[in-house]
Amino acid sequence: MLAVPKTGTTALEAALTPLADTAILNPPGHKHVSVQRYRNLLAGFFEQRGNRPMDTMAVVREPVSWLESWYRYRTRSQLAGKATSTAGISFEDFVAAWLMTDQPEFARVGSQANFVTDDKGKIAIDHIFRYDKMAAAVSFLEARLDTSIQLQERNPSPRMPTPLSTEMTKRLHAERPQEFEIWERLKGDGSY
């Protein structure tokens, strides 16, 4: 399981860690390793005992919802005064900053598309599930692991309104189409 940030994978991780032979839980740069980094740096370690590559899975979130979660998460009082804080910044300005080539620190949250694709922009994860259909991911894991999985909310973002103008929404779709294309490719049950 590759943990795309802000997609409920901390809850999955908490449920699955007792069953895992190996898990990278910290630091976040290693816990949230993209498929490219996994293939280049970690696959050999995890696959050394098998005769074939391991299946990979990830959860992705609708792109605006994903950005909303990051924005709300970075408003937490624990980040007050830090460069990563979004306190005092509108969601509209956060999205505009995320679209910049040279993003300010508060908008450096990565890209779901970059997380799940190879260096040619092709999806390189074997199984992708929609965040809003987490039950499909849980069912998949329960079948693979032959166990029951109970999720508890972990690492929630504060609740608050996050208005986004029609113009910024159009700009987001126009400038980052791959984020939305990946989301749209997921089947009705929420899987790829």
Describe the structure.
24% of the residues are buried. The mean pLDDT is 91. The chain is mainly alpha-helical and 192 residues long. Strands 1-2 form a two-stranded parallel ribbon. It has helices at 9-16, 28-31, 35-47, 63-73, 91-98, 112-116, 134-145, 166-175, 177-185, and strands at 57-60, 127-130. It is built from 9 helices and 2 strands. The protein has one domain (9-185).
Taking pLDDT < 50 over at least 5 consecutive residues as the criterion, the unreliable ranges are none
Large-scale geometry = globular
Tally of DSSP β-strands? 2
Alpha plus pi helix count: 9
Tell me about the largest β-sheet: 2 strands, parallel
Radius of gyration, whole Å: 17 Å
- Percent helix among the residues? 40-55%
Distance between the termini: 14 Å
Overall number of domains: 1
One letter per element, helices H and strands E, the order comes to HHHEHHHEHHH
Portion of residues in beta strands equals under 5%
Average pLDDT: 91
* Helix/strand/pairing category: mainly alpha
Strand arrangement across the biggest beta sheet: 1-2
Indicate the topology:
Elements (H helix, E strand, L loop, with lengths): L8 H8 L11 H4 L3 H13 L9 E4 L2 H11 L17 H8 L13 H5 L10 E4 L3 H12 L20 H10 L1 H9 L7
Write a brief structural summary.
This protein has helices at residues 9-16, 28-31, 35-47, 63-73, 91-98, 112-116, 134-145, 166-175, 177-185, and strands at residues 57-60, 127-130.
